[in-house]
Amino acid sequence: MINVVVAGAAGRMGCRVVALIKDSTVLTLTGAIEGKGHRALGEDAGERAGCGHAGIPITDDFTSLLDQCEVVVNFSAPEATLQLLRATAKHRRAMVIGTTGFSAPQLEELQALALQTPCVLSPNMSVGVNLIYKVVGEMAKTLGDQYDIEVIEAHHRYKKDAPSGTALKIAEVLAKTVGRDLNQVGVYARKGLVGERKKGEIGIQTIRAGDIVGDHTILFGGMGERIEVIHRASNRDTFAGGALRAAQWVVRQPPGLYDMMDVLGLQ
Question: I need a labelling partner for 198 at 20 to 30 A (CA). Which of 37, 68, 154, 256 fits?
Fold first, then answer.
């Protein structure tokens, strides 16, 4: 059995990770973490997740759990993630990170810390979405400059960062494949008399509404036809399951920064 600590254990994603570990035959929950002052501190992680008693209280004392685990699965805020990764790297434990919204300096620190410990970082742990990363790049290469590219993402009203990390990753894959710099060609909003669409633009548009788990559409628009690749998540188990697949994989890897494409052998 692989011993797992879940960080952000009382959140939407953390609860599903806890529930799937409880049902797993290869993973066991040895700790559950939340930030200082969180209202769920002291609660049983399984009961918080709605999957029954797990015998693991949610705590804010992360370092006390590191000796008991092999891998940390983390869905928390960017700064909290870095704090956890600093301690994880010091203790040479593996980590799976599904957090999004990192700033450039935060990503630089994360990359440096990953030199000390095996770490999987992915804005989307879904197997289907990571397959899309692979497929849409090939599509963009074949379709060429005659097709306009738009990425549209929709999430629930509570999501704090925009565009989603997944949408940005898709746009980065597309831009790299067709030899463009996303910083130069990315268009994140259109309003007013903006003129004709510029050649080479990659649009990334955001929707926030209700309880949408996560929808992503990649649209290739040509003269006379439109091709759409759509991924819709109906619940969070696709992401939680992918994260646990990554957890099983990363404990066997040397120190370094990996993503789900590595986990799935799609590189």
Answer: 154
If DSSP codes are grouped into helix, strand and coil, which group holds residue 24?
coil
User: Cα separation of 121 and 113, whole Å?
Assistant: 12
Largest distance between two CA atoms of the chain: 61
Q: Give the 3-state DSSP-derived string for 228-260, with helices as H, strands as E and coil as C.
A: EEEEEECCCHHHHHHHHHHHHHHCCCCCEEECH
Establish whether 159 is a catalytic residue: yes
Which residue type occupies 151?
V
Q: What distance in Å separates the CA atoms of residue 6 and residue 69, rounded to the nearest whole number?
A: 10
Give how far Cα 60 sits from Cα of 4, 138, 154, 174, Å: 16, 45, 32, 40
Residues 20 and 237 sit within 8 Å (Cβ to Cβ)? yes
Total count of residues recorded for the chain: 267
**Torsions phi, psi for 174 (to 5 deg):** -65, -45
List average pLDDT for each run of 10 residues in the chain, which is 267 residues long: 96 95 96 94 96 96 91 93 94 93 93 95 91 93 95 95 93 95 95 93 97 96 97 92 96 96 88
Omega prior to 123 cis, within 30 of 0: no
Catalytic residue, candidates 22, 155, 169, 231: 155
Domains of the chain (ranges plus CATH)? 2-121+236-264 (3.40.50.720), 127-233 (3.30.360.10)
Q: How far apart are CA 97 and CA 100, in angstroms?
A: 9
> Is 141 labeled as catalytic in the residue annotation?
no
Lookup result for tokens 């619940």: 235
Instruction: Give the pLDDT confidence score for residue 123 in this predicted structure.
Output: 84
Q: What angle do CA 262, 4, 59 make, to 5 degrees?
A: 130
pTM: 0.82
Q: Which of 36, 90, 156, 159 is catalytic?
A: 159
